[in-house]
Automatic annotation (TrEMBL):
Its cofactor is Mg(2+). The keyword Metal-binding applies. This is Farnesyl diphosphate synthase. One of its GO terms (biological process) is terpenoid biosynthetic process. It catalyses: isopentenyl diphosphate + (2E)-geranyl diphosphate = (2E,6E)-farnesyl diphosphate + diphosphate. Pfam families: polyprenyl_synt. Keywords: Isoprene biosynthesis, Magnesium, Metal-binding, Transferase. InterPro entries: Isoprenoid_synthase_dom_sf (IPR008949), Polyprenyl_synt (IPR000092), Polyprenyl_synt_CS (IPR033749), Prenyl_diphosphate_synthase (IPR053378). NCBIfam families: FPPsyn. It is an enzyme of class 2 (transferase). GO terms for molecular function: (2E,6E)-farnesyl diphosphate synthase activity; metal ion binding. It comes from Staphylococcus microti.
Length: 293
């Protein structure tokens, strides 16, 4: 990772370390929240937000920090709930036991609930942004994470288990389940930076490609990666009888579609590079399709 992204990541991780304060209730809730929030990961969503904002409005990443934390909280809550026995029933996440394996199911559920609500507290209390900008961000994040976004995609995914689904349905699942929060990361930066509609449209199209790239790569790694490299159980999609890009299209076709989306994303960055320094987004794009975990 280059120096600029390392600096953004260090700033984000430092802020994240102080994001959950102790309550007066003296329960294990905060401990459970922090366990999953600090379990590691590449932080690609907050990095996307901060890198895009830095591209559009250099040296203004502080304005995006609280929104980036809120986004990571939403993402983390979704992982805690996804891992539960009622859904994917996973025992390992980022190389560590999943939240419910450490704290039990009921506390894992409540930790996810608390992270979800804490996210909106973080944005609504962000005094570095105008009230109008905060309302736009809360609205966009609600849409991305709710029944028309991530939760809706997860529901369609669960309903599709043990069923033959077509490519269109699979794309709908992942456009919402995976793509919605990736799209929000970039959309949030455009909201904070107050860019014009044309730039916003190009960046959101870029984000849509990223979402598909991330998911196809995930599907490939689930079948052809290793548990040691991934930090989670491989073959879980097959065990849960889920359709993926690989099971539906075969490895060669899935890799071909992946390459096509990479090329189209690169073309968007090439156009944007005439006005902006796209170095960090170029790096993150490569991270998405070259990653091994």
């Amino acid at each position: 990772m280059n120096q600029s992204l390392n600096k953004l990541l260090a700033t984000f991780n430092d802020a994240l370390d102080h994001s959950i304060e102790k309550s007066q209730l003296h329960t294990q809730l905060e401990e459970s929240m922090i366990y999953s929030l600090k379990a590691g990961g590449k932080r690609v969503r907050p990095l996307l937000l901060l890198a895009t904002l830095d591209m559009l409005q250099p040296k203004s990443e502080d304005k995006g920090l609280n929104t980036a934390i809120a986004l990571e909280m939403i993402h983390t809550y979704s992982l805690i709930h996804d891992d539960l026995p009622a859904m994917d029933d996973d025992n390992l996440r980022r190389g560590k036991p999943t939240n419910h394996k450490v704290y039990g199911e009921w506390l894992a559920i409540l930790a996810g609930d608390a992270l979800l609500t804490k996210a909106f507290e973080y944005i609504s209390n962000d005094t570095t942004l105008s009230a109008e900008t905060r309302i736009q961000l809360v609205s966009a994040l609600s849409l991305a994470s709710g029944h028309q976004g991530m939760v809706g995609g997860q529901t369609l995914d669960m309903q599709s288990e043990s069923k033959a689904v077509d490519l269109s349905t699979l794309e709908q699942i992942h456009m919402h389940k995976t793509g919605a929060l990736i799209r929000f990361a970039i959309e949030a930066a455009t909201i904070i930076a107050h860019v014009d509609n044309d730039i916003q449209k190009q960046l959101i199209t870029f984000a849509n490609h990223l979402g598909i790239i991330f998911q196809i790569k995930d599907d490939l790694l689930d079948l052809f990666g290793t548990t040691e490299a991934l930090g989670k159980q491989t073959g879980s999609d097959d065990m849960n009888d889920k359709s993926t890009y690989v099971t539906l299209l075969g490895r060669e076709k899935a890799e071909s579609i992946l390459a096509q989306h990479v090329e189209e994303a690169e073309q968007i960055l090439s156009t944007l590079s005439q006005t902006y320094n796209t170095e960090n987004l170029d790096y993150l794009l490569k991270l998405f399709y070259q990653r091994q975990n």
